[in-house]
Automatic annotation (TrEMBL):
Boundaries of every THAP-type domain copy: 1-88
PANTHER family hit by this protein: SI:DKEY-56D12.4 (PTHR23080:SF143), THAP DOMAIN PROTEIN (PTHR23080)
Protein keywords: DNA-binding, Membrane, Metal-binding, Transmembrane, Transmembrane helix, Zinc, Zinc-finger
SUPFAM superfamilies reported in the protein's UniProt record: Glucocorticoid receptor-like (DNA-binding domain) (SSF57716)
Superkingdom of the organism of origin: Eukaryota
Pfam families cross-referenced by the UniProt entry: DDE_Tnp_4 (PF13359), HTH_Tnp_4 (PF13613), THAP (PF05485)
Name of the protein in its database record: THAP-type domain-containing protein
Annotated transmembrane regions: 487-511
InterPro entries noted in UniProt: HARBI1_dom, THAP_Znf, Transposase_HTH_dom
Amino acid sequence: MVKRCQWGLCNSDTRYPERLEGGIKFIPFPKPKSNLEKCRRWIKLCGRPHDQLNEKYADGNKHLYVCTKHFVEGIPTEKYPDPLPALLSPHTPYQTPARKLPKRRVLSEPPNKRRKVLFDVTELENSEIVPCSSPSIVDDSVLKANSVSSDTAQDVCPLDLLAIAAENHQLKQQLAQLLLANEESKRKDLDEVESNSTNKKSNIPLSIEILVNSKLKGSFKYYSGFSHERFMNINNFLVKDETLPFKPSVAVKCIKSMPVKDQLLLTLMKLRQNFDNIHLANLFHISSQDVSVIFSNWINFMFFHFGSVSIWPHRDVIIQNMPSKFKCDFPETMIILDGTEMKIQRPTALTTQSQMYSDYKSATTVKGLIGVDPRGSVTFISMLFSGAISDKAISSQSGLFDTMRKMIDCGMLKEGDGVMVDKGFNIREEIEMLGIRLVIPPNAPCEGQMPAADVAMTKKIAAHRVHVERAISRIKKFKILSNRIDLSIFSSINQIWFVCCFLTNFMGLLIRD
């Protein structure tokens, strides 16, 4: 098995025995699973770029070593367990070794003649010694800086030079140890500061107060889809006091301990941003199972509570709040109808796939029917049907005609009122049987151009019918409906659809006169 040193530009390798002179041994690299802190410290001290030597690489590779040349005492000890820091910074790119220095030319002199170095020993002791590149040879700059005239020069013994070189080498080792200790203390201080800051942040779960006091403007509306004032209106509409307004289907401790407003915030965040349960669990410091229980209980409670409210106002109220331009063009039209489709995850059963497939969207979808008043508020919400259903079929199966018949019986509608639809709704016979007028764009003739009056009527209807499209776009801003709907929430998709449609009535007016 090949062993190779990972420290800096070291070339110690078992494949080349000449590089292992002096009894060099290889120390295994620490593993992140067992000692992550030591592994990170060794990566930093080795000075290797992060893309060449990182935690994942060290975790998966069993053959990473550092040779004993780079330890203060030759091997890891309790006092010096880590290697010396490499000269190459971890932030600089990896560099190849430079070419070898040229050999110093040897002067031709008699082999028996001893080389004499002339300088004042006392001046050498009092002067600052420049570190040498080699422990056994004194640099020429030192000799020139400390040289004196030949009259006062004295011969120096080579043993004195070796002692100075050994002392210089020892000072270098001490300096390296001090630098290493300094870096170690700085790293520990930074780790303590980061751990304290993260613990302070992570120990505070998300709540209404944190979003309200947040320095980021619009954070409350981003998460819930409503301003704080409108959120409180929804809360006051659903909850009379601070107690839980329903009995949980599953006994979970967090439902009793978690504030009611925070549970409503969690539900709206799931509807608006479609966060994963794990992400919501991390934000509110609960388990993902608790998030699922809270969301399912609240969405069912909101569905039944909103469903008990009549959102179709009296015709006098509609006419009183009708925009002036709409009142001028269609004064007796009380509702604008349109259908919308939402993509879902493809079912595994082929029969279900064929029922859910929509030719219009070229995907498996579910379809719902929406009705808005001339001001843009939602007044009719159907349940969801398969994407293959037609507009005429969904109008009859959604209970629209029965609802309008009841409105006529109780005086909220009267015969002669209008219903505005698109060309795809071939429901003229059913609507006229109720005594209600159908406002629909005229069909183009088979031959020739459309008459000028029909063109003007088509433009006029399109200018007002676009508001139902705007209302549908409001509903689809809840990302749980705009994203591809997962089959895991299919059991409560009707409740989610109805609640999202109803919540748009808590927003501002869609059409301002």
